[in-house]
């Protein structure tokens, strides 16, 4: 890493700490929240609000590698309408299937404000979910409750942050997550909510589109590099993390522009 990049990381870390401590000096993190507030004020649907929040959380929560949102239907069913990476939706689904995990706990009516763990592999509260998350390479998780935004139906949820390193989702991360969840809850209360069926249909469409384009990108890498499907997916995942872009966006770029890359 260059000296300039080192200084940039140090400035960013200092700004995060000052913001969490209540500092009033403007800076990158304060600017992120100001920009998020402006975008949320312009949002007209639940889907718009949630997409803005997960992108912001991935950028500003210290230690965040994956972010997703869990919603709970009035009947008590859970689903993930938005995420920054398909792996986050997979980890959420493990919790829905097993009935245990932080996003399930935080999304329940009258549940805790936030739930987390710094050692998922050995977390006694979630004996089925914890080891599965660790197998995917994640050591820590933090879920912060979203207040019910459809009051008559009591549809609540949680903002979920996954980290590959332990001891990074600390008090500062919890404070930032709480700010984001509060932003999201207030914005959700002010928009025209779409139905749960529409949210789930949109999520399914996005999931299918993402799966298709990721499959295309994997095929390109397998052909170019002479590697297997698992290796190709791991290369895509690592590159998306290094570039700080969504896996599906990276795959779409590769699938759509691979001929240009070949010429160059």
Structure write-up:
The chain is of the alpha+beta class and 264 residues long. It is built from 10 helices and 5 strands; from the N terminus they run H-H-H-E-E-H-H-E-H-E-E-H-H-H-H. It has helices at 3-20, 28-42, 46-60, 86-98, 102-107, 129-135, 171-190, 196-225, 229-243, 247-263; strands spanning 66-72, 78-83, 114-117, 140-150, 155-163. Strands 2-1-5-4-3 form a 5-stranded antiparallel β-sheet, sandwiched between helices. It starts with a helix and ends with a helix.
First-last Cα distance: 26 Å
Q: Helices and strands: which structural class?
A: alpha+beta
Q: What profile does the largest beta sheet have?
A: 5 strands, antiparallel
Order of helices and strands: HHHEEHHEHEEHHHH
Please give the number of β-strands: 5
The average pLDDT score comes to 76
Shape summary = globular
Assess the beta-strand content as a share of residues.
Answer: 5-15%
Task: Flag low-confidence runs.
Answer: 4-9, 15-26
Summarize the structure.
Helix content is 59%, strand content 14%.
Give the helix/strand layout:
Blueprint (H helix, E strand, L loop, with lengths): L2 H18 L7 H15 L3 H15 L5 E7 L5 E6 L2 H13 L3 H6 L6 E4 L11 H7 L4 E11 L4 E9 L7 H20 L5 H30 L3 H15 L3 H17 L1
Antiparallel strand pairs: 1-2, 1-5, 3-4, 4-5
Helix pairs in contact: 2-3, 2-7, 3-7, 8-9, 8-10
């Amino acid at each position: 890493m260059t000296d300039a990049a080192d200084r940039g990381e140090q400035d960013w870390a200092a700004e995060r700490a000052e913001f969490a401590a209540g500092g009033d000096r403007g800076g990158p993190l304060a600017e992120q929240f100001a920009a998020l507030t402006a975008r949320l004020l312009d949002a007209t649907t639940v889907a718009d609000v949630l997409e803005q929040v997960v992108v912001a959380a991935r950028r500003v929560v210290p230690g965040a590698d994956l972010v997703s949102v869990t919603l709970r239907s009035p009947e008590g069913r859970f689903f993930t309408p938005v995420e920054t990476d398909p792996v986050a939706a997979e980890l959420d689904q493990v919790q829905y299937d097993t009935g245990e995990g932080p996003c399930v706990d935080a999304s329940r009516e009258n549940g805790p404000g936030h739930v987390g763990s710094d050692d998922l592999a050995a977390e006694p509260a979630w004996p089925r979910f914890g080891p599965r998350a660790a197998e995917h390479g994640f050591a820590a998780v933090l879920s912060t409750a979203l207040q019910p935004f459809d009051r008559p139906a009591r549809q609540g949820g949680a903002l979920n942050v996954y980290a590959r390193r332990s001891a990074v989702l600390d008090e500062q991360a919890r404070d930032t997550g709480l700010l984001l969840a509060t932003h999201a809850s207030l914005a959700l209360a002010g928009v025209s909510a779409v139905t749960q069926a529409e949210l789930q249909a949109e999520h399914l469409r996005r999931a299918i589109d993402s799966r298709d384009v990721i499959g295309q990108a994997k095929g390109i890498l397998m052909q170019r590099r002479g590697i297997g499907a698992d290796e190709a997916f791991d290369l895509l995942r690592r590159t998306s993390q290094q570039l700080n872009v969504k896996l599906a966006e990276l795959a779409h770029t590769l699938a759509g522009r691979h001929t240009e890359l070949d010429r160059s």
